[in-house]
Amino acid sequence: MENLIRSAFQKIASSLLVVTLFFGCTIEEEKQVWQKGNLHTHSFWSDGNDFPEMIIGWYKDHDYQFIALSDHNTIADENRWYALTKQDLENKVLEKYKTAFGAWVEAKSDTTSTRVRLKTYDEYRGLIEDPEKFLIIRSEEVTAAWEKKPIHINVTNIQEKIEPAQGNSVVEVMQKTLDRVYEQRERLAIPMFAHINHPNFGYGISTDDFKKLNGERFFEVYNGHPAVNNAGNESHVSTEIMWDLINIHYLNQNKPLLFGIATDDSHHYHTFGADRSNTGRGWVMVQSQKLEPAALIAAMENGDFYASTGVTLKKIEQTQNKLTIVVDPEVGIDYEIIFLGYQSGGDDVKELARTKGVKATYTFGKEDLFVRAKIISNAQKDSPPNTKETKQAWTQPVLIRP
Ligand SMILES: [Zn+2]
Ligand SMILES: [Zn+2]
Questions:
Q1: How far apart are CA 235 and CA 225, in angstroms?
Q2: C-alpha distances out from residue 365 to 320, 341, 371, Å
Q3: Cα(74) to centroid(ligand 2), Å
Q4: For the CA of 143, the nearest ligand
Q5: Model pTM score
Q6: Interval 95-149: pLDDT, tens
Q7: Segment 254-264, tens digit of pLDDT
Q8: CATH: 2.130.10.150, 2.60.40.730, 3.30.70.260, 3.40.50.1000. Which one for 311-402?
């Protein structure tokens, strides 16, 4: 009898648990979880002007959930002693580093120079990463050129260094790099992805170059470095127009759509201004419950993220027939939500709808083939590379399936 009562109680308790879990899930699903990260940063491992731990510390202290230091042609795994330059001495890099990290710092001086050992990825990750709160992803900016045209491709969650490729054209160099990333990913069975950096830097990579690629999924629609020409010029389209033109082509070729990333490409950590490449200018917000590389990469490959230079979204909701955007507003700031799309029979992406305010829904029309949203604001940036820029966000293009 006692056993029967106990088992009845257990049944009731477990069904209550199911109910709680069920309702718990429903509530969870309503609130989207966003992870903030910057996938393009430089340190003393290449041409950035601070130690990895100092740079990562800035991102950790500024509410980012993940960071990738993407130095040129290195994955920060060697024994390297960095000799401080005159500029580094003026920036007091060693004093600042010692103040923040004390006995962790390894430095030695002789009559000619002061050298500091750069901590490897494994070392700085072990010190600073915080499970479920702050993730450090390994990266490399694979840095090549063709006839002086810069071809820079970041590889997020890379495991083995990839050498810059050579070839007979910009497209060949890019394709070889992408192929090397896919080869490594398949061989190691570890998710990783390439993103093409700042195509308008030196106007190295054209829309037509992108069109010829296979397996190209991500590029920088916004890069915070002052020299990268996001907006284009008289003879070159902006990265945003480039994005749409590439996607029209990819759609017609039955290739997956290209997704847009915003990054800092930060190099300068001691002086600030429009002519410097500083932190906090561009990032991605990835919709993922889990803070781990595989989950973030899966979400990004699914288009579940947006690029931002300051606008935060509460929600992006897509159903079979509509797309809803909800802004998480700053006090006193005005927003406009613009839906842009490519429609059958068209030859470019055009504005489909525009709403002033913090929430808008676009219902897909039967001519729509892909649609994306851009959210603009009148909020001034804290540290813009171009003082005319105001805070924005870009959601990823979604394919409309009839
Ligand atoms: Zn670059
Ligand atoms: Zn870079």
A1: 21
A2: 11, 10, 10
A3: 12
A4: 1
A5: 0.92
A6: 999 999 999 999 999 999 999 999 999 999 999 999 999 999 999 999 999 999 9
A7: 999 999 999 99
A8: 2.60.40.730
